[in-house]
From TrEMBL:
Gene3D superfamilies registered for this protein in UniProt: Vaccinia Virus protein VP39 (3.40.50.150)
Gene Ontology BP term (one): methylation
InterPro entries referenced in this protein's UniProt entry, alphabetically: DNA_methylase_N4/N6 (IPR002941), DNA_methylase_N6_adenine_CS (IPR002052), RM_Methyltransferase (IPR001091), SAM-dependent_MTases_sf (IPR029063)
GO MF: DNA binding; N-methyltransferase activity
Protein name: Methyltransferase
Organism, as annotated: Prosthecobacter vanneervenii
Family: Belongs to the N(4)/N(6)-methyltransferase family.
Lineage start: Bacteria, Pseudomonadati, Verrucomicrobiota, Verrucomicrobiia, Verrucomicrobiales
PROSITE patterns assigned: N6_MTASE
Source organism superkingdom: Bacteria
EC number: 2.1.1.-
Residues of the DNA methylase N-4/N-6 domain: 24-252
Keywords per UniProt: Methyltransferase, Transferase
Length: 267
């Protein structure tokens, strides 16, 4: 199977063409359903039931393609009054094995509301296929600053100071609340997709669930963030996208830098 390429077409149809058990990790950021109300791709279903049935189908195909020790990360968020993702999480967790629920703390709020708290997070439902999964917590440690390390080193409960310092210098294990600032309009990373995810966030998901050379699949590639992350982490990748404009953006991001741009960076 040829990898490191974008498959143009409908996600469900393209997923049905792929062999079983080949992807180590799936990163899926599908339409939310009536959350981004100005986007045709987010308002294409007449009812929530139609949307949920579509999700049942593409997730089932994705889980078929997933390796037995793999993980599937599925993004979702709630609208002002739209709460379909809550039903979707419950539904998928009954059909497949639940592994975790990650809260992506976007660091800043968005979509100010008059009568409720300002939302500042999105959710990532994590599904597993088998009982044993590939997961490396060391890849997503959070560094301690020097002052914190020295404060912890004064704890007399630890007799082996060398081992204690080595442990602290690795950093603390990340929780399932991941704080990565969202992309604003003036961000250099922003490239034209209304729900583009920061590459540093995707890096964490790929790094903890794959090894170098593993295959990462994104059924809704959009502007190509998953592919860009996989590429720089030396993973194989496959992306599916039906929008020609987004494919053009993704290919531009994934193209090797030109000789002139490298020369300008060095000068």
């Amino acid at each position: 199977m040829k990898t490191n390429r974008i498959l143009k077409g409908d996600a469900l149809k393209e997923l049905q063409k792929l062999p079983s058990g080949v992807a180590q990790t799936i990163i899926a950021d599908p339409p939310y359903f009536n959350v981004l109300e100005d986007e045709a791709w987010d308002t294409q279903w007449k009812t929530a039931a139609d949307y949920l049935a579509w999700c049942d189908a593409w997730v089932a195909e994705s889980m078929r393609i997933l390796r037995d020790d793999g993980l599937a990360f599925i993004f979702g968020q709630l609208g002002k009054r739209e709460h379909t993702f809550l039903h979707l999480m419950s539904r998928l967790s009954q059909q497949h094995q639940f592994h975790d629920l990650i809260i992506w703390d976007r660091a800043v709020g968005y979509d100010e509301r008059r009568d409720s708290f300002t939302p500042q997070y999105e959710m990532i439902l994590v599904l597993r296929k088998g009982d044993d999964v590939k997961f490396n917590k060391d890849t997503v440690r959070i560094p301690y600053d020097a002052a914190t390390i020295e404060a912890y080193m004064r704890d007399n409960r630890y007799k082996d100071k060398t081992a204690r310092r080595a442990h602290l210098e690795k950093g603390k294990y990340a929780t399932n609340i991941i704080r990565v600032p969202s992309l604003k309009g003036n961000s250099k990373e922003k490239c034209g997709h209304p729900s583009q995810k920061p590459i540093n966030l995707i890096d964490k998901l790929i790094a903890c669930s794959t090894d170098v050379g593993d295959l990462v699949l994104d059924p809704f590639l959009g502007s190509g963030t998953t592919a860009a992350s996989a590429q720089r982490l030396q993973r194989l990748w496959l992306g599916i996208e039906r929008d020609s404009n987004y494919i053009k953006i993704a290919k531009k991001r994934l193209a090797p830098p030109s000789k002139s741009s490298i020369k300008n960076r060095k000068s």
